[in-house]
Amino acid sequence: MAYRETAKVRDRKALTEQRILQASHELVAEAGFAALQMNQVAQRAGIATGSLYRYFANKETLAAEVFRQATEIEVDHVRRCLQQADSCALSRLEHALQTFAERALKAPKLAWALIAEPVDPAVDQQRLHYRLQYANLFACAVQQAIDDQLIPQQDPMLSSTAMVGAIAEALIGPLAQQAQDPTHAITHTITQFCVRGLAPFRYSVTGASL
Amino acid sequence: MAYRETAKVRDRKALTEQRILQASHELVAEAGFAALQMNQVAQRAGIATGSLYRYFANKETLAAEVFRQATEIEVDHVRRCLQQADSCALSRLEHALQTFAERALKAPKLAWALIAEPVDPAVDQQRLHYRLQYANLFACAVQQAIDDQLIPQQDPMLSSTAMVGAIAEALIGPLAQQAQDPTHAITHTITQFCVRGLAPFRYSVTGASL
Q1: A210 in a domain, yes or no?
Q2: Interface confidence (ipTM) of the complex
Q3: In this structure, what CATH number is given to the domain that contains residue B84?
Q4: What are A42-70's pLDDT values in tens digits?
Q5: What is the spatial distance between Cα B138 and Cα B158, in angstroms, rounded to a whole number?
Q6: What are the DNA-binding region positions (chains A, B) (predicted)?
Q7: Which residues in chain A touch residue B157, judged by CB atoms under 8 angstroms apart?
Q8: What whole-number distance in Å separates Cα of residue B25 and Cα of residue B40?
Q9: Over residues B48-72, mean pLDDT
Q10: Under the phi-then-psi rule, with left for phi > 0, alpha for psi from -120 to 50, and beta for the rest, what region is B178?
Q11: Is residue B116 within 8 angstroms of chain A, CB to CB?
Q12: Which DSSP state fits B84?
């Protein structure tokens, strides 16, 4: 009897936590982490502010978790692009970069919050963690492209971190202006910048991709 | 008489402020912004902690000013590289990127603090500001390179922000490991990544620069 009670409470808590995170995600997607205020979150989630603090000790912890969940989704998309078996490593990389940029431009406010908004150090720490995770994913593809002699010998991690930085930083301006880019000129330019950085001979002789 | 008194006080205040900023800079260069504690700053500057607060209302304001001064020095170095009249726009750009990376690797702890350390939003705001300033400087050189037909038509600002991101992000790993790189392999790789990103034909046909 005591056990069933506990399981029920646990389920209800899990649901409430989910509701809190959903409400928080919406606020961030609408107006960045600056809009993540505890009383606003509580109101949108339909709970008392006091109860909210039982789930998340402070705004920083909540922000870090919102960041983590939103970024995991983006990382998953990139990972899936890189796992497609039916194309060469460079095409997969190009597809992954393009997908990352396109998704960002489709949800500019959220992407801006995740990539560039000045945030609490706890969230910044997560940013470093995930940028390293992106770089690790890219580095596998770069290594594969080297093995397949598509690009010359190079430090895969150094090139991959450069790509992560290039794509993130190049998006900041367009995201801040909430650019809608139906022609994909922005994503194409950034992707080509990155891929050409890896491969002096392949992409240059065929060229003309700017 | 009152005027001279005031001038003297003003001079003494300016000197004290300079001593505070010097002490703060040293702490950050030794162990990052995490080491910037008001009591530590006061001790090293040889003043009472209470007096310190008369100069800087809080740690965040002090940190932002330390960041600003240290970054201005780096921006100046990049600017000077880009102003050298005796070389083409692409060579100047290459030189500026190389200089930025070399200086970072020579003072890895300070560079890490300026580029990557999770910091207060006030400092993060400064980071955005200065990264934009770097990008603006690069964009002038990119535009010049386009005008001189050294590289194809492209959005100079988009390419320049990509370069700023690439160089900053690629340095984070080596800086975190406090890599000393006497062979300049790191700076060379990053610089080439950036410059190749701009120029599919120039750097590819002559190629082999990785």
Answers
A1: no
A2: 0.85
A3: 1.10.357.10
A4: 999 999 999 999 999 999 999 999 999 99
A5: 10
A6: 37-56
A7: 173
A8: 12
A9: 96
A10: left
A11: yes
A12: -
Give phi and psi for B82, each to the nearest 5. Answer: -80, -15
Please say whether the beta carbons of B172 and B116 come within 8 A: yes
Given a cut of 90, is residue B43 above it in pLDDT?
yes
> A206: helix, coil or strand?
coil
Give the domain range for residue B20.
Answer: 1-57
Mutation target for B interface from A100, A133, A196, A206: give the one with most B CBs within 10 A.
Answer: A196
pLDDT in tens, B123-146: 999 999 999 999 999 999 999 999
What does the pLDDT read at residue B209?
39
How many domains does chain A fold into? 2
Mutate to test the interface with A, among B146, B154, B161 (most CBs of A within 10 A): B161
Write the DSSP string, A87-125.
S-HHHHHHHHHHHHHHHHHHSHHHHHHHHTS---HHHHH
- CA A196 – CA A204 distance, rounded (Å): 7
Domain shared by B16 and B99, yes or no: no
Any A CB within 8 A of B105 CB: no
**Interface touch A190/B163, C-beta < 8 Å:** no
Co-location of A11 and A70 in the same domain: no
| CATH code of the domain covering residue A32 | 1.10.10.60
